[in-house]
User: What shape does this take?
Amino acid sequence: MRVDVLLGLQWGDEGKGKIVDVLSPRYDIVARFQGGPNAGHTLVIEGKKYVLHLIPSGIFHPNTHCVIGNGVVLDPVTLKAEIEKLQQVGVDVRSKLLISRRAHLILPTHKLLDAASEAAKGDQKIGSTLRGIGPTYMDKTGRNGLRVGDLLSGNFEKKYRFLVAKHRRLLDAYYGYEYELLDESFLEAIEYLRGFQLINTEYYLNHALSQGQNILAEGAQGTLLDIEFGSYPYVTSSNTITAGACTGLGIAPRNIGRVYGIFKAYCTRVGSGPFPTELHDQTGQRLRDMGHEYGATTGRPRRCGWIDLPLLKYAIQLNGVTDLIMTKADVLSGLEAIKACTAYEIDGQQTEEVPFEFTPGIRPVYETLSSWQDDITAIRDKKLLPASLQQYVDYLQQHLKVPLTYLSVGPDRSQIMPMQVLTA
Ligand code: GDP
Ligand code: IMO
Ligand code: MG
Assistant: This one.
């Protein structure tokens, strides 16, 4: 048995949560491997919307276990609130959730450091979600961090106070940042967390594999936010690509199976940083309105633009994508025309290679495709799709050279259709 990976090919918010929920019945375990509560994964089940930040999106399936892997950074306060909310709607989180002892903890002071760092950057700010992600990964690689397993040691309080004192010195002396440290809810959440299954998930997952169980690794953020290959420095602080599933779960590379690459029929980005195909006109606003493009974590309006094929090809290459899944095709219905960026023009030369940096002189080169006017949200059979949409799908498959296995036509779990017969 292998670990399949599902991740975003753009700048996040591709609809990963919805697709994980749809695919979960095929998996015994769904595991998050990186990121933290900067993620906002939306599921719509029978008209009811749920947004998950830390808990894997397989949680609504009664037989699926959920793992928060070692590569995740975990905010106990967010996790507690999320668990309580799920319990209120009858989800038995306690028996289904397993948390890695090696996952690093986000402290209240990490969030303050995130805010102080962003404030110090002024108009160069990353546009972070301010969930403390960057400072927590900095403490991890700087070998100062606190881990979930530390909760089980007798001297957690001492370790916590030691790290907080360091953070306070940074906030006071380096940033000169005004703040009030409220950590009662953190200490309360720590107590709460002690009642959960805090285990060595690398053993759990490898044992499950040896027993023939199916595992789905759920990515957060997107490939273009990856710390190595994203639009640095406007990225997140973790490896969002397939390789991150190995380090973030303790799975050997040869155990990776399918890689599902999720992308929107257009493109969005929230926060700062380059976005070559961004639309600043009425069409961009229309995509935002029709696609309800507002952040699931922060509520910020998402920047919208056309699909970018060189970036998608780059993401497919980095991740070894075996299956493409396109979401939000319904949002394109009713447009006059659809455009796809096929190359960039740099100093008068066309190239498909993603440059080291997107400088302002870079111009996207577009091809225009026919649009469709029909509402497609009730379609469940690919044979009933408008001809222009089928042409768009064929065009993308031809360029991207990977089969599109599903097409999503609305936010609800039911609004999806297979496009190919899935082999084992
Ligand atoms: P994630 O972070 O990748 O899980 O994506 P988000 O949940 O942040 O953002 C995706 C948004 O699009 C959510 O509001 C979803 O409910 C919604 N969504 C997902 N698939 C579709 C689709 O095919 N059509 C439409 N209209 N909305 C979708
Ligand atoms: P999901 O999993 C979209 C963006 C932020 C910011 C940058 C760094 O829902 O797709 P961070 O808080 O990580 O320091 O922010 O990354 N970002 C996301 N954008 N979807 C996400 O997650 C994101 N997580 C972080 O907006 O630009
Ligand atoms: Mg999201």
Observations:
- The two ends are 11 Å apart (CA to CA).
- The CA atoms of residues 7 and 265 lie 15 Å apart.
- The mean pLDDT is 96.
